[in-house]
Amino acid sequence: MRTDWDGIEEFVAVATNLGFKPAAQALNVSTSHVSRAVTRLENAIGAPLFYRTTRKVSLTDTGRTVLAHCRQLIQSRDELFAAVGGDNDPQGEIKITCSTLLGERYISPIVRRFCQEYPKVEVTMDLSNRLVDLIAEGFDLAIRTGRLEDSRLISSRVATRQFLVCASPAYLEAHGTPQRLDDLKAHNCLIGSSNSWRFKIGNKHETLRPRGNWRCNSAASVLDGLLAGTGIGQLPLFYVLPYLQSGALVELFEDSRPEPEPIWAVYPQARHLQPKVHLLVDRIRAQLQPGFEAAPLNQLQP
Q: N or C terminus of the chain: which is more exposed, having fewer CB within 10 Å?
């Protein structure tokens, strides 16, 4: 059965402006035109999109589902017209999620410069350590680390991160410096989101389950504990590099660093062909990868 999608623009305008009259003003058409267009769309879908009262309108469950798709349709249409019309600059909204510290320190500055270069792009960034459902929450792009399990998503490696074991000079002076991995059993290990620490000894990969009296799923909090001299921890290089360079932290087991862990750009398959997403991913890779993968690991000490 053929379905006409007349009314998409009007429906999105009502949902965005929270009413038929303000939607009509935004589109520079009559309120009756907007009302008829939305009704035609509801008839085509076979379900109401709004709860209507004399005071306000609100989206139904179907309306919330349809809204995300309609916004994507409008955005894809505008990008197509821009490309055919010769305007090849990326444009439209990009919604990004990333872990907090990685986002604040590295990803956000790259994206900000991208927006300055392409002012038609509108970016919303959600910096959070929770695992966001990109499809359910309408995200275009995520920057993630480690193992990926969602087969609905497309991934592209943009960099790697190196893990190091560190402690403060004050802690080592008070408790001694471990020389072998087994020596860690006698030390207070500050445990982050992972229950195991990885090492590489020669060509052999080793895994150790650290023990300690403090655990937190925030790497920033683990870093605070290291700087306070309360224990030993394993963190990515980008967390600890400035403190290693200043001498506030000391690297342990330098010869047993594990293999670097990949950093991924992840996006839903529906976003796979969007030029703005690919261009931003390429930009993140070009600017993130050199600093992470060519870090002066042999020059960490001041």
A: N
